[in-house]
Design goal:
By secondary structure, the protein is of the alpha/beta class. The protein is built from nine helices and eight strands. It has a single domain, classed as Rossmann fold (3-Layer(aba) Sandwich). The protein starts with a strand and ends with a helix. The structure holds 2'-deoxycytidine-5'-monophosphate.
Amino acid sequence: MKINIAIDGPGAAGKSTIAKVLAKHLGYVHLDTGAMYRCCAYYAHTHNIDIQDDRALEKMLNNIDIRFIGQTKVFIADEDVSEIIRTNENSMRTSLISQKKIVREKMVDLQRKVSTDKGYILDGRDIGSVVLKDAELKLYIIASVESRAKRRYDEYVAKQIEADYEAIAADLEQRDYQDMNRKESPLTKASDAIEIDTSNLSVNEVCEAVMRLVNKKIGK
Ligand code: DC
């Protein structure tokens, strides 16, 4: 028996990392919904689209061709944007464009079309509360700002990208505030979601805890 798993929480709490490990372990499909909003922000920026202009956004949403290749690559049409959509600048732009109703409607529609069956793990901000309201398992992954900023900082350093810990922490806090206080589908913990604080846990420890929850759900 397969189930659907909804993972929500603030930025850099470990949602996608956990989702990827679980998907591999369970043979499920992982959809990183944040990457979809990141593609919209990147496309709008590189095509000089005014995100306050709904008509321009509508045209963009009809044209943008977001493709996931395997579990790690994201393309817009033929351009591999896997890395470029993850910069700090694009993260901030994403938090802004994802406030737009027209963008959310289109992305939610695409996400629901992908996950019509069971065996999906979606991670984002509104998965348990909007996209997959009937997911059998809902997780709300949190971590302290310090540990999230440290993880992001280490990621950048490993990739030899210039990084400033204080700036990363400030940006994360600003993004959390925007994502939690927007009008359209703000980041919120669904009433039936299970909260996990990953501040002092390794990826393995979190995945083991989640696997116990999954096994309980599927009656193993
Ligand atoms: O998960 P992430 O950090 O890649 O998400 C980037 C931004 O996208 C985040 O600041 C808010 C937005 N987002 C959203 O509004 N809804 C989702 N389901 C996923 C992401």
